Amino acid sequence: MTAPVSTEYVFGRHQPASHVLIHVSDPHFLAGGARLGGRYDVESNFARTLEAIRQVHPHPAAIVVTGDLTDLGEPDAYRRLRAALEPVAAELGTVVVWVAGNHDERPALREALLDLAPTEEPVTGVWDLDGLRLIALDTSVPGWHHGDLDDAQLAWLRDVLAEPAPHGTLLAMHHPPLPSHLPLFDILELRHQDELAEVIRGSDVRGILAGHLHYSAHGTFAGVPVSVSSATCYTMNVSLPAAEVNGMDAAQAFQLVHVHPDTITHTVVPVTEAPTGEFFSEAWLERMAALTPEQRLEAFSRKPAR
Ligand SMILES: [Fe+2]
Ligand SMILES: [Fe+2]
């Protein structure tokens, strides 16, 4: 359980966020810290992501990692990932939500990350984040890369959702229930989406967090916003024509999720170093906070007379 985080300065019409979450995806760790495909230094790239997470918010309600935690499901890869992320989560006083992806192996994930028996049972869970419910689904299919949700998991989800939560529910799952403009991903899409939609409709689900695509994407499913976080390991170079899109060691990103009473925003955070201006600061915000709304408009909205 974590305390709700409110925005310190509220200058607009919306209520402050009740919860702030970090949404990370697809670290694809390998045993021994090996490079993915011999190219991508996934551990260094993840370390850069963690540095960004540490500075972006002091106390998120959760860090959600939406699958493909490892590339080959090796126990050592899970141990290395856990050793990388858990100290940062402890420092920020937050919980980690591990979600299984198609590159994961349930038995190793359960044993090495969750200290559970190494079975093929789906890796699911429910978190009460001070009234915001987070449900992790397991869309992985042992032995395959496409996604699916079987009757048992859908029935379980229906049961959990039968009772609404005070701040509503977020679902976290690896395969997004969205189309991709890259045909390769449609081969690996989530099956039984109609059945999932039926469970979600009329429930208190306010958003779906997903991964798998290695690029940032947004859509709706059963009337619910879906946000796909890009990968921390490598990303798909979607600036190319769809048939020519391949991986690149650039544009890694995660998302900052602000849960407001009336809406949820997903901010894509690029993991990058770049010369950055110094105009805005805590002192600037304090000067704005000392003004009335009308004075703030005068100070920051009015254009100089021409
Ligand atoms: Fe992935
Ligand atoms: Fe995946």
UniProtKB/TrEMBL annotation:
Entry EC no(s): 3.1.4.17
InterPro entries hit by this protein: Calcineurin-like_PHP, CNP_phosphodiesterase-III, GpdQ/CpdA-like, Metallo-depent_PP-like
Protein name, per record: 3',5'-cyclic adenosine monophosphate phosphodiesterase CpdA
Similarity annotation: Belongs to the cyclic nucleotide phosphodiesterase class-III family.
Alphabetized Pfam families for the sequence: Metallophos (PF00149)
Segments forming domain Calcineurin-like phosphoesterase: 21-215
GO molecular function, one term: metal ion binding
Residue ranges that the Swiss-Prot or TrEMBL entry lists as coiled coil: none
Regions crossing the membrane: none
PANTHER family: CYCLIC NUCLEOTIDE PHOSPHODIESTERASE CBUA0032-RELATED, PHOSPHOHYDROLASE
Source organism (scientific name): Microbacterium oxydans
Keywords: Hydrolase, Iron, Metal-binding
Domain of life: Bacteria
